[in-house]
Amino acid sequence: KKLVLNQEPSLYYCLIFLLLLCAGPKEYAELWNCLAQWRAMFDRYDRDRSGKMNALELRDAFYHLGYMLPTSVLQLIILSQFDDATGNTVDLCFDRFLECGMIVKSLTEKFKEKDPGYTGYATLSYDTFMSMVIPFIASYD
């Protein structure tokens, strides 16, 4: 099955593929399978088949993945997607969905390390918090 992008891939996405050049066949297959699973999730929740995800479709996809994100967090994700030409927010294409999904997944895993009882609460120092978050935002504009 072919993985199809709906627009030019972002720098982040290109870096993932560059890392593949250093990986062996097993790692390449694992990453390709992971991307195919994310693509299947995107296609499943892109209910209008527009090739983009609106806020409701994004909420449902994250919920299916086990992430019950508060409305305020979903709004931040959507608001972070601006069309520079119009200044309006835009729906997420697959590339942006993948980026957002990987960030939510990774930050959730980092948070769970600090919340071993899975209570939804953790006490973090400022340094710990910044060490958890900065790697995910430092590579963006």
Automatic annotation (TrEMBL):
<dbReference type="InterPro" id="IPR044590">
    <property type="entry name" value="CML48/49/50"/>
</dbReference>
<dbReference type="GO" id="GO:0005509">
    <property type="term" value="F:calcium ion binding"/>
</dbReference>
<keyword id="KW-0106">Calcium</keyword>
<dbReference type="Pfam" id="PF13405">
    <property type="entry name" value="EF-hand_6"/>
</dbReference>
<dbReference type="InterPro" id="IPR002048">
    <property type="entry name" value="EF_hand_dom"/>
</dbReference>
<keyword id="KW-0732">Signal</keyword>
<feature type="signal peptide">
    <location>
        <begin position="1"/>
        <end position="29"/>
    </location>
</feature>
<feature type="domain" description="EF-hand">
    <location>
        <begin position="33"/>
        <end position="68"/>
    </location>
</feature>
<dbReference type="InterPro" id="IPR018247">
    <property type="entry name" value="EF_Hand_1_Ca_BS"/>
</dbReference>
<dbReference type="InterPro" id="IPR011992">
    <property type="entry name" value="EF-hand-dom_pair"/>
</dbReference>
<protein>
    <submittedName>
        <fullName>Probable calcium-binding protein CML48</fullName>
    </submittedName>
</protein>
